[in-house]
Write a structure and sequence with these properties.
single chain, about 160 residues, about 30% helix, Alpha-D-Glucose-1,6-Bisphosphate, Chain A, domain 4, globular, five-stranded antiparallel beta sheet, alpha+beta
Length: about 160
């Protein structure tokens, strides 16, 4: 009888005890972290991580116009844009959360003449670094390319 009660109590308590499924996705500061995988590239065929270094701005823009164009492009594509204050340069951290399942974080640095867009972090995107090459879920390339294209469109638009 005692064993049945104990077993029942354990089963019942398992319904009320919630263990965070993704507790390892955050570092000690609370920032999202995707642990790099070993050289296995996940179930879906991965692609190389796409960065956009030193993209030239063809029209004259002030630094504040470049910042605003990047923000407009990010918001248009549902990225959460955040100024990285105290970094010593013009830097924006852009975060995209898709279906509460995938998270991508990129760093955008900019001047009046150019901007750069670099992979920073991700969650549930099968990121892997193998032999000096970085791989990730193929949708990353689509989302980041779309952001880059939107930034270029915003920067080529007439002054606002």
């Amino acid at each position: 009888m005692k064993i049945k009660l104990l077993t029942g109590a354990l089963l019942l308590s398992s319904f009320f005890v919630m263990i965070p499924a993704h507790a390892d996705l955050y570092d000690s500061t609370g920032a999202l972290v995707e642990k790099p995988r070993k050289c296995t590239r996940g179930a879906r065929k991965s692609v190389y991580v796409t960065d956009f270094p030193d993209v030239e701005i063809s029209q004259y823009r002030t630094i504040s116009q470049v910042r605003e164009a990047i923000y407009r492009a990010g918001r248009e594509n549902r990225w959460i844009m955040r100024d990285m204050l105290g970094t010593g340069d013009n830097r924006i951290e852009a975060t995209l959360v898709v279906r509460s399942k995938h998270t991508v974080i990129v760093d955008i640095t900019y001047t009046a003449n150019q901007y750069s867009l670099f992979y920073k972090n991700s969650v549930n995107m099968n990121y892997a670094s193998c032999d000096g090459k970085r791989y990730i879920h193929p949708n990353y390339a689509v989302w980041v390319s779309r952001l880059n294209q939107s930034i270029q469109i915003e920067l080529s638009a007439p002054d606002r």
